[in-house]
Amino acid sequence: MTDSVQSDGATLLANRPRVRSDLLISRELGRGPDRIHLVKIRGGKAFEVAAKERFLLSRMDGQRSLSEIGEEYASRFGRRLGPAQWSQLLWLLHQRDLLRPARGPGAAEADAGAPAGSAVAPASRAVGRLAGALGWVFSVPSGVVIGVGLLAMYGSLAAAAPGLWRAAAPAFSDWRYVVGIAAISYLSAMLHELAHGVAATHFGCRVVELKLWSFSCRVEDYQYLPARGQQVTIAAAGGVSNSLFIVPFVLAWPATPADSAGYRFAAAAVVVGVVQSLVNFVPVAPLDGHKMLSHHVGMIALAEESRRYLWSRPRYWLTRRGPRYPLRARLVLGLYGVAWHAMIAGAGAAIAYGVGHLLRPHLGQAGYAASTAAVVLTITMWLASRPQRPVRAAPTQRTPHHQRTQ
Questions:
Q1: DSSP E strand boundaries for 15-68
Q2: pLDDT for 51-93, tens place per residue?
Q3: What values do phi and psi take at 253, rounded to 5?
Q4: Which residues in 70-105 are b (16+ Cβ under 10 Å) and which e?
């Protein structure tokens, strides 16, 4: 019996498994107190694995045997995997369809890469051609020139803000101007999504869906790019395109005769365009600014995890129960969480004051009290509905602790 078990174990360790060729694995990311990697089959769902599992997946290339991988694992983590653990791991990988099928009839077709139905759409081909023509935009010198130019533009607009608003205000009370400005804003929003698609294609991602009319751009492997700078650039591309879109109106405003229709329209277009552009960079989910900051600090669900961290601290300080956060996670989540709550409080105060001002002719000073109470109640109910942490046992999200490789 012992010889049979040893023979089976030796046979298992002689296997040379190979993961699918269309498997995407992200760099190491943070989710709350954990360090994880995202793993996904093209066209399929993503889930999270720990560093040990990522280490094993990256070495299942069909060349190394499980015995050889085990030696590397033991050298790296100081623990050796036995046949039972290998069997469990291979079963989990098989359940998630992450392994390349054994050689045989039809095996080549089963691991051909992209899943059926994932042929490049005409829109994606057009975006690819556009990305090829505009590749120079994503170079470092171009980025520096664009960045400095936009900062100079926003600086000059800030200095001219009072005059700009006086010129634009009459346009907002005339429906003809409003219709024109709405059309321009709609076009700018379309270009925003197109810019995301072009940037993603330039960095090698596959655009799964691009619907300009409904302002939608989905990218398959955006989260799996090796460099965070590429991800930040893709997230920032939309807001940058909105900023570049208003440049002609910024130049036209002072160049047209004062009090003319073109003067008022250009000023109104600049005001709306500036708001439309800059709001994208506010680091609040689901805006692009939140994505940019998340990529820069290398964390997933930054807003949700920062709320969870702050809400868990009082209990942890009192009982010492709950997850232990590393220093970097405490700094990032704590600082962002405090800033996020401060932004919410500031926005709430502004809304309470504005609504109270509107109610003052009818309710007097009580109007401010009523609006403040309504805002406080709304924010309290919203914050009370704290997001739940993803269920670790869900096979498409995360490998459960009791099934992780030890």
A1: 23-25, 29-31, 34-41, 46-49
A2: 899 999 988 988 888 888 989 999 998 888 888 888 888 888 8
A3: -60, -55
A4: beebeeeeeeebebeebebbbebbeebebbbeeeee
Q: What's the CA angle centered on 260, arms 254 and 262, to 5 degrees?
A: 65
Pairing relationship of beta strands 216-219 and 34-41 according to DSSP bridges: unpaired
Neighbours of 328 (CB within 10 A): 12
Q: How far apart are CA 349 and CA 85, in angstroms?
A: 56
Query: Can you tell me the distance from the alpha carbon of 84 to that of 46, in angstroms, rounded to the nearest whole number?
Result: 26
- The pTM score is 0.80
Task: State which amino acid sits at residue 331.
Answer: L
Contact 96, 63 (CB under 8 A): no
**From CA 150, how far away is CA 187, in angstroms rounded?**
20
Structural domains of the chain sorted by starting position, each given as residue range(s) with its CATH number in brackets: 2-103 (3.90.930), 122-289 (no CATH), 302-384 (no CATH)
Higher-pLDDT residue of 136, 285: 136
298 touches 29 (CB < 8 A):
yes
Residue 345 CA to residue 324 CA, distance in Å, equals 28
Residue 198 CA to residue 22 CA, distance in Å, equals 22
- Half-sphere exposure for 99 (CA within 13 Å, toward CB): 17
How far, in Å, CA of 47 to CA of 36, rounded? 10
Q: Indicate the angle between helix axes 66-77 and 51-59, nearest 10 degrees.
A: 150
Q: How does pLDDT run across 103-129, given as a tens digit for each residue? A: 544 444 445 444 433 444 555 778 888
Under a CB-based contact definition with an 8 Å cutoff, are residues 185 and 272 in contact? yes
Instruction: Please state, in angstroms and rounded to a whole number, the distance separating the CA atoms of residues 192 and 271.
Output: 17
Tokens for 344, please give them: 């919410």
Cβ(283)–Cβ(292) below 8 Å:
yes
CB atoms within 10 A of CB 16: 14
